[in-house]
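--- STAGE predict ---
source: upstream dedup step, 1 unique chain passed
mode: sequence only
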Amino acid sequence: MSNMMEIERKFLVTGNGWKNEARAKKISQGYISKDNQCVVRVRSKGNKSFLTIKADRGDIQRLEFEYEIPHEDCAMMLDQLCGDAISKTRYTFDYAGNTWEIDEFHGVNDGLIMAEIELDTPDQVFEKPDWVGPEVSADERFFNSYIAEHPFSTWGVSFGDLVSEFQAKE
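--- STAGE serialize ---
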């Protein structure tokens, strides 16, 4: 069991300099419940499974409770309670004293690649690798709960166009 304040920033990935050195795990996840204030997620990650509750606390902060659950329970919840599950490969990459998680989405979300970094404080200074593109932390389209309901393949935009859209805003 864990309970903590999650402080996370998300970015689009514009290069692949991370891929050869990163550690990879396959992830399937789905959402039992989701609204603007709270989501309940089940996730199979490698040979472990988790039930997670995230509550919005504004900006890039969320209260998070995560519990390991039996893999069979997770599989049943994904199949019977979640609708369309997200499939992705999560790569973990250490850079400048921080751990980055890069999610390469598959299936109906193929082509979407995002990087996340978890911080200790919202204003923590960190160094970005050169493959990290524009920040999308505040855009709900890049929340996994949104992607589960609105797959990237239905957005009508290429990944390159998304990168350009956010770069123009910076």
